[in-house]
């Protein structure tokens, strides 16, 4: 796993926490104002406190495979195309509201400036990330193959 992939996942989680997923005028905004003084690491750890997943460093999903040497010849990295871009197909679960989906989409698009990473809506790719609310904020490192869950707690 390269530092770039690790940074990508941590930044994605940071962006998801940076954009509030609440409608204006709700009581949740009052709570959000109180939470502004809490750093992102603490927010992620608090969000993952009740998670049933086995996590490392608070937000990295532990692989369930038995073989510790799963990544041969950089197979666990998202491929860089000849144009120098890393394209990552994604889907966003329909459990998120329209406003929440827009916030997530803005967070993904923010990677397009200053990085080689391009998140694109999934068409028929086997390897893709699936952004879901799984009772915490966590993801696997790198490319695991197939549907890869990135959990953003609602």
From TrEMBL:
The Peptidase M12A domain, residue ranges: 67-154
Assigned keywords, A-Z: Signal
Signal in keyword set: yes
SUPFAM superfamilies: Metalloproteases ('zincins'), catalytic domain
GO terms, biological process: proteolysis
Signal sequence coordinates: 1-18
Pfam families linked: Astacin
InterPro entries tied to this protein: MetalloPept_cat_dom_sf, Peptidase_M12A
GO molecular function: metalloendopeptidase activity
Full protein name: Peptidase M12A domain-containing protein
């Amino acid at each position: 796993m390269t530092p770039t992939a690790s940074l990508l996942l941590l930044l994605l989680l940071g962006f998801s926490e940076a954009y509030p997923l609440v409608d204006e005028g709700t009581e949740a905004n009052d709570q959000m104002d109180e939470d502004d003084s809490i750093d992102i690491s603490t927010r992620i750890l608090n969000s993952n406190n009740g998670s049933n997943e086995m996590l490392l460093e608070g937000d990295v999903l532990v692989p369930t495979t038995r073989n510790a040497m799963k990544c041969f010849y950089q197979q666990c990295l998202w491929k860089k195309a000849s144009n120098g871009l890393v394209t990552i197909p994604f889907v966003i679960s329909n459990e998120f509201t329209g406003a929440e989906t827009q916030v997530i989409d803005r967070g993904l698009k923010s990677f397009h400036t200053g990085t080689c990473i391009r998140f694109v809506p999934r068409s028929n790719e086997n390897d893709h990330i699936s952004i879901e609310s799984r009772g915490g904020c966590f993801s696997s490192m790198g490319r695991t193959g197939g549907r890869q869950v990135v959990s953003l707690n609602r």
